[in-house]
Amino acid sequence: MASMREIKRRKISIQSTQQITKAMKLVATAKLQKAKQEADSARPYFKVTKETVASILAQSSGLHHPLLEERNDGKTLYVVITSNRGLAGGYNGNVVKLVLQQEENPSQAKVAAIGKKGRDLLNRSGFSIYKELHGIMEAPEYGPISELGDEILELFLQQEVDQVHVAYTAFNSSISQEPKLLQILPLGVEGLRTDLLEGKTKQDPTEPMNYDPSPEAVLEMVIPKYVKSVLYGALKESIASEHGARMTAMDSATNNASDMIDDLTLDYNRARQATITQELSEIVGGAEALK
Amino acid sequence: MAENKFQLQVITPEEIFYDESVERVIFRTSTGDVAVLKDHIPLTTSLRSGIITIFSGRNNQYGVIHQGFAEIRPDKVTILTDAAEWPEEIDLERAKKAKEIAEEALKKQGEKPGANITVAKMSLTRALARIEMVEYHNKMVK
Q1: Contact in structure between B89 and B60 (CB atoms under 8 Å)
Q2: Per the UniProt entry, what are the Gene Ontology biological process annotations, in alphabetical order (chain A) (predicted)?
Q3: A123-155 pLDDT, tens per residue?
Q4: Could you say which of B13, B71, B83 has the minimum Cβ distance to residue A42?
């Protein structure tokens, strides 16, 4: 059995770790509330944009648009949204794992990294980092995302990339987050159309609609908006998920620390009792010897 | 009275900016200003930066919206825009300064096409829309 002093030192060290994890959990909980609210308020814009794109595509079949064009040369761009800091359980790892599973040829793929953790992990696996955008995590505003969206659209139109995916973490609830990979370019026409026909969106696809000046012109304008709104929504969801994941991770870390402290307290008391018993028997033994 | 109203929603990426039933709304599309009343034919159209005027009963409200599109249905109008502001939220001095900077940038670049031109033009239209709206608002209040 370890000495009393050693046990005490370990206990103190775990206690201070526990204080840190407890504080981090409280901070994450507070941030989660705000992030959750922001994610909720970003949702309507995304939903309506998606519905509009879907209904234009559903009503006017045979539309041709450069942004709908399917190409298959394996040049893929991943927009990977992770966190800047660790200690969030599997949050970053899960997103990165998804990208690694999807991509067979990392050396050909590009990564636009939002979040330092994702950049580090993917860089190590041989992906080339095309762009980094870490600061946005602190103040998620639409402006920088809109610029990123324009840049991605430009890359796609110039055939620098053939597919664009967003890897992010969907926020189901405070304790449940789900890593997701979503293709944003070329626009999945079939997917959107099925969503609409199966009634996943609330619009009636048969309802007549006029377009001013023309369906193509409206589509031309709406698709970039759709792409940006996906990016923006994914960012908001990911931030909420990050705090949720960190909260859960820190909560279990705090609980584990409590368990360890309990065990160590027991060990410590046992060790103390052993010392006392030993000292007593030594004294008694000494007294016996003097007789 | 209530029969002539329809639902107007103005949605930005950040929030739902406006969501109430109104009698009439005027905004600027890519082909000109339009006023929408109840039972308008279904129409989806793209918007330019400009004033949006909302008539909801007695008091009129003015706002400015920056790009986007509108989806008009007989009983509902949904406007999706990059940003929307009330006159109180606009800093006139800042808008004027932004206008000058943008004009300066356009002059310097000459007619060379490029990303900077687009950015400057965008910020110029935004600034102009803001200035126009604030001046209009001030006139109406007086």
Answers
A1: no
A2: proton motive force-driven plasma membrane ATP synthesis
A3: 888 888 888 888 888 778 888 888 888 888 888
A4: B13
CB within 8 Å: B69 and A207: no
What CATH number is given to the structural domain containing B95?
A: 1.20.5
Nearest to B14 among A41, A209, A225 (CB): A41
- Do B109 and B64 lie in one domain? The reply is no
- Mind listing the pLDDT tens digit of every residue in chain B (142 residues)? 556 888 999 988 888 888 888 988 998 888 888 888 888 888 888 888 888 888 887 778 888 888 888 888 888 899 988 888 887 787 778 888 888 887 777 777 665 555 566 677 777 777 888 887 777 777 766 6
Between strands B6-11 and B76-85, the pairing is parallel
> Any idea where the domains of chain A sit in the sequence?
39-248
Burial-class residue A156 by CB neighbours within 10 Å (0-12, 13-18, 19+).
Answer: buried
Hey, are the CB atoms on A209 and B15 less than 8 Å from each other? no
CATH 3.40.50.880 fits A39-248, yes or no: no
From B71's Cα to the closest Cα of chain A, the distance in A is 8
How far A56 CA sits from the closest chain B CA (Å)? 9
Does B16 contact A at CB distance below 8 Å?
A: yes
**A155-196: per-residue pLDDT in tens?**
888 888 888 888 999 888 888 888 888 888 787 666 666 665
Domain that holds residue B30: 2-85
Q: Give contacts of B79 with chain A, Cβ < 8 Å.
A: none
Structure tokens at A190: 């079939």
User: Are the beta carbons of A212 and B29 separated by less than 8 Å?
Assistant: yes
B29 within 8 A of A212, measured Cβ to Cβ? yes
| Structural domain count, chain B | 2
Same domain, B59 and B20: yes
ipTM above 0.85, yes or no: no
Phi, psi of A96, rounded to the nearest 5 degrees: -65, -40
Q: Which residue of B has its CA nearest to A232?
A: B13
On chain A, the residues whose CB falls within 8 A of the CB of B14 are 38, 41-42, 142
pTM of the model: 0.80
Contact of B27 with B33, CB cutoff 8 Å: yes
Residues 72-131 of B with CB under 8 A from A: 78, 80, 82-83
